[in-house]
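In pairs, describe these two lines:
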Amino acid sequence: MATMTFYPDKHPESTSVDGRAERWLADPGEDWADIKGGVGTAAADYEDTIPIQLGGAWEAAPDQFVGLSRGFIFFDTSSLPDNANIESAILSVFGNAKFDDSGALLDINVYGYTGDNNNALEPADFVKVGSTPFSTTISYGDFNDWGWNDFALNSTGMAAITKLGTTKFVLRIPTYDVGSNIPAWSTCCVDGFTIYSADSVVYEAYKPKLVVNYSLQILKRWNGAAWVNAKTMVRSGGTWKSQPIKRWTGTGWSDVDGLG
């Protein structure tokens, strides 16, 4: 088993990024569905911390809200070997603070990103997010506001890790942002979480990280006398597809029907 650790670029970014995209309005705000589904009003990829939080309107009637922030964390994972078989992966973020003045008891989890950006964030990214959870939700009580919070990625989350470029994750509030529930309204509060980013100067060691554990898929082919590494095969006229191929599973060699 081999392990590689990845971090987002700090500003100015090159091949990855972390930061926020959000929709925040002035009073009187709007209803929660419009906050979640409306266009983004701001984004930043250069601040010390990343907010994942929501806010109620100060002067509006009940159930009006002024904002929602989502956290974006991208990693350049192109250095993973082409034949890496990802066995497990953990996304870790270091808590900076958490707020629950309204009693909403927010939670947090990891989701996918559906946009095209790799090394910058813009307000339009606010709505370019997935709704399938990539890990187990961390509750408000379990979120460490001065320490590491580890999201062990499930099979869907691991499948989102690419060997060809940038792997992209979004931190969202499952109960209210992803789900259909409406937060408890209050005029007093901004509730949620903040985590350290790659741009933190004082706490640079606390930047987000993605740890990937993988094994190598080794292919062999029969050359007529012995099994040799498949990478030595030269494709000629498509005839190599019919050659016997075996793959190392981690415990033994198994047959592969062929390579196209």
About this structure: The mean pLDDT is 89. The chain has two domains: 2-214, 218-256. The first helix runs from residue 32 to 37.
